[in-house]
Design brief:
By secondary structure, this protein is an all-alpha fold. 74% of the residues lie in helices and 2% in strands.
């Protein structure tokens, strides 16, 4: 209901050709003009006819939905009812000081349609304040269909006539302080209200049913969309959760690999430090060994030289004649031994450096 009220506040736009086509179509389809059937089969048939009519009207102007065209047709009938009430009022006034403008050709067709289908209702059922303007694409209709709504007096007359029983006696009194019109106009309005009160109530019930069915359809579509959205959200959440689990697994694998690499690097550093320590110890032991060998060799050579020198002195004392030649021989031997000693000492130092 609230959706229909919000839509009715908007300005309905249509073209002259669309109004003409709408009226002509309703002239040939009285069941669609009345929309008074309530069985499901007839409702489906009416819906199909409205859809076909909407496609035809779409070719002659702006596109509208079936619900919007129903509102246009309903408002057009209300306008014609108001014009009929205005004409009857002015024509039945005493003296006829002011005559009502005659009905246009389009209004006469609408009157014939609503009279044929017995669908004339009180003007109060129309939606007041709804603007019905033509589209800017085409010029306005030559005939004036924007006539004013019924006056307060007419509305009160129609409401009183609707509440009356067809077999009841005189009509109920009007509001206090209001001066009633002539007896002739009052009797005419009462008879009009009594004649069509039954069809008006049926029309109201049918409109309520239509609005209820439309509301149920809208809420059903909203529920379907809501369920579809919930399914999509659930699927997206599932995909996101699986992606997060996969990412967490990858992060754990990377962390384990990093931990293993760090442990291996620390172990490698420990082994390298141990190797360096062992190499330094080996170098120290080798150096000590070389120094010991050098000391022993030096001591040996010194002891040997002393022994040779003593032997040389003894020999010289026994044989003075051969002193010079023996001295030269001993000295050459000493020099050779000294040179050999230094060569071997240099070789050992080179090996220790390596």
């Amino acid at each position: 209901m609230s959706i229909n009220k919000e839509e009715s506040k908007k300005t309905r736009r249509y073209t002259t050709a669309q109004i003409v086509q709408l009226v002509d179509y309703m002239s040939n389809h009285s069941e669609l003009a009345s929309s008074r059937f309530s069985c499901p089969i007839s409702n489906d048939k009416l819906d199909r006819q409205w859809e076909a009519l909407a496609k035809i009207l779409e070719k002659h102007g702006p596109k509208k939905t079936v619900a919007q065209w129903k509102i246009v047709w309903r408002d057009l009938k209300c306008k014609v009812r108001g014009r009929l009430a205005e004409v009857n009022k002015l024509n039945s006034a005493p003296g006829k000081e002011k005559s009502a403008p005659p009905l246009t050709e389009l209004e006469l067709k609408v009157r014939a349609i609503i009279t044929t289908v017995n669908d004339i209702g009180e003007p109060s059922t129309c939606e007041r304040g709804l603007k019905m303007t033509l589209s800017e694409e085409e010029p306005p209709i030559d005939m004036d269909i924007s006539f004013p709504l019924p006056t307060k007096f007419e509305l009160i007359q129609n409401e009183v006539g609707e509440n009356l029983d067809p077999q009841a006696g005189p009509s109920l009194p009007l509001e206090q302080g209001y001066n009633p019109p002539s007896l002739q106009a009052k009797n005419m309005s009462e008879s009009l209200g009594n004649s069509f009160s039954s069809s008006s109530r049926k029309s109201k019930k049918h409109k309520v049913v239509e609005e209820w069915e439309s509301t149920v359809k809208i809420f059903t579509e909203i529920q379907k969309d809501h369920k579809s959205s919930n399914k999509e959200i659930a699927n997206a959440i599932t995909r996101l959760a699986s992606a997060q689990e996969e990412l967490l697994g990858q992060q754990m694998s990377v962390a384990f690999a990093l931990e293993t690499a760090v442990a291996a690097h620390l172990e490698s550093n420990k082994l390298q430090a141990e190797a360096n320590r062992l190499q330094a110890e080996s170098n120290r032991v080798q150096q000590a060994h070389n120094n010991k060998i050098t000391e022993l060799l030096t001591e040996f050579l010194l002891d040997r030289q002393v022994a040779i020198f003593i032997l040389f002195i003894k020999l010289c004392m026994k044989s003075r004649l051969a002193f010079s030649s023996r001295v030269r021989s001993v000295m050459s031997n000493l020099l050779g031994m000294h040179r050999l000693f230094h060569e071997r000492l240099a070789m050992r130092e080179d090996r220790s450096d390596e």
